[in-house]
Specification:
By secondary structure, this protein is α+β, with helices and mostly antiparallel strands. The protein folds into three domains: 80 residues, Beta Barrel (Thrombin, subunit H), CATH 2.40.10.10; 99 residues, Trypsin-like serine proteases (Thrombin, subunit H), CATH 2.40.10; 105 residues, Pdz3 Domain. The strands form four sheets. It has a six-stranded antiparallel β-barrel. Strands 7-8-9-12-11-10 form a six-stranded antiparallel barrel. Strand 5 and strand 6 form a beta hairpin.
Length: 342
């Protein structure tokens, strides 16, 4: 009987420890929360050709300060947005602009204009040090519910295959609840360090089902922070072979420009986006814009070698080179260029 009582008391002591663990997470989340922001991005698109009108698209995502005026987020949150606003934890809003991109890894860096000098900065941790089943948590704006916290564990590490296999990308899987609006927000360890940037979920219903994915902090450091690829402001898609043939694209390959963001490097170069929506094999494309044939003299193709060469050429833009494009427009091949501001 005494043995059973001892075991029971031991189990009670374990349960009694759980509030302390919960409080520990509460303290960490409260400390990190002021470094997290909500991002509102809007895009204006022309539709229906020269006689058409405009359509506005907007969305909400999340991000985290990694310097006094720089926010780390997901590329798809701000990618080709014409306007970006950042809301800090105190409810104040600031205009912002995208400065750097690592589209292949769904990462972007945003400069917050007029950010306060006392902004709280998060620590970018070493994502290689976290182990499977370690506790993690997420702060963001799921479904627009700002500065929400969800917790779980690191479920697995993944290496994406397919179009991104020409660079090394480390993806962290977590069962912490992630929904639309969490994108771009931080995945954190129990020291409050950012070890990932929320990117996407796998879901049959559109909601969280315990399959959330974040791009690791070490990938962000390698592809976005160390390699200073400037933001170009182009929404594009590789042309399907039948459409490339129909448009008489030289070489039968190129990237169709669907949208060019205002005040971007691509806009300064004079690049034109599409205006006419068409559906090809179930996918909607905006045609009528330019087709990019070369960037920095590198022919564009979807092979890993060509994509790697194009990315390396864009990395060099961070050294102050001018953007050089060869495009197809209205049956003519043109060369466009624009300076890249440091």
């Amino acid at each position: 009987m005494r043995r059973r009582c001892t075991i029971a008391l031991g189990m009670l002591s374990l349960f009694a420890a759980s509030p302390a663990n919960a409080q520990s997470l509460a303290d960490i989340a409260a400390r990190v929360r002021p470094s997290v922001v909500t991002i509102m991005a809007a895009t204006e698109r022309r539709i229906g050709g020269s006689q058409g009108g405009t359509a506005f698209e907007g969305g909400i995502g999340s991000g985290v300060f990694i310097s006094r005026n720089e926010v780390l987020t997901a590329y798809h949150v701000v990618g080709e947005a014409d306007t970006v606003m950042v809301q800090t934890a105190d409810g104040k809003r600031y205009p912002a602009r995208v400065t750097r991109q690592a589209r292949v890894a769904d990462l972007a860096l945003v400069e917050v204009l007029g950010a306060p000098a006392d902004v709280q900065i998060a620590t970018l941790g070493n994502s290689d040090s976290i182990r499977i089943a370690d506790p993690v948590f997420v702060i963001g704006a799921p479904l627009g519910m700002e500065f929400s916290v969800s917790s779980g564990i690191l479920s697995a590490r993944r290496q994406p295959s397919g179009g991104a296999d020409f660079v090394k990308i480390d993806v962290l899987q977590t069962d912490a609840a992630i929904n639309q609006g969490n994108s771009g927000g931080p995945l954190l360890n129990m020291r409050g360090e950012v070890i990932g940037v929320v990117s996407f979920i796998l879901s049959s219903s559109g909601g969280s089902q315990g399959l959330g994915f974040a791009i690791s902090s070490n990938t962000a450091r390698a592809l976005l922070i160390d390699q200073r690829v400037p933001w170009l402001g182009i929404a594009f898609t590789p042309l399907p072979a039948p459409l490339a043939a129909a448009l008489n694209v030289p070489g039968g390959r190129g990237f169709l420009v669907e949208h060019v963001a205002r005040n971007s490097i691509a806009a300064r170069a004079g690049l034109k986006g599409g205006t006419i929506p068409v559906v090809i094999e179930g996918d909607t494309l905006m045609i009528g814009g330019d087709v990019i044939l070369q960037v920095q003299g590198v022919p564009l193709d979807v092979t890993p070698a060509a994509l790697l060469a194009a990315r390396q050429a864009l990395v060099e833009l961070g050294n102050g080179l001018a953007l050089q494009l060869k495009v197809l427009r209205g049956g003519r091949v043109l060369e466009l260029s624009a300076p890249v501001k440091p």
